[in-house]
């Protein structure tokens, strides 16, 4: 009686299909990451230049109290009123504001004004006190 040998299962694995999938995923993530725009504020840091010309327009000062109150021309304003005022400022020739928060003001109040300035294309300068 003849005994037949069973065929052994090969333990080898083809890596070519796995590398194809990895390269396709790499290409996919490279393409999609370039389409994502960061949601960040465009900050203009001060720089030194010898040929600086003073701006001819008036620069409005927005003060922010520690409790979250907004002041423009020493008058208290709500955030909705500030949006209307910044929209009005944006219609001038060189729209600019300075943002002056008190020491210890929560960041979200400052960012709210910076967001309004960015939305209406008004140059905002953050003027803080030295620690």
From TrEMBL:
GO terms for molecular function: transmembrane transporter activity. One of its GO terms (cellular component) is plasma membrane. It is a single-pass membrane protein; Single-pass type II membrane protein. GO terms for biological process: protein transport. The chain crosses the membrane at residues 21-41. Keywords: Cell membrane, Membrane, Protein transport, Transmembrane, Transmembrane helix, Transport. InterPro entries: ExbD. Its main location: membrane. The keyword Hydrolase does not apply. It is found in: Cell membrane. Belongs to the ExbD/TolR family. PANTHER family: EXBD MEMBRANE COMPONENT OF PMF-DRIVEN MACROMOLECULE IMPORT SYSTEM. This is Biopolymer transporter ExbD. It comes from Phaeodactylibacter xiamenensis.
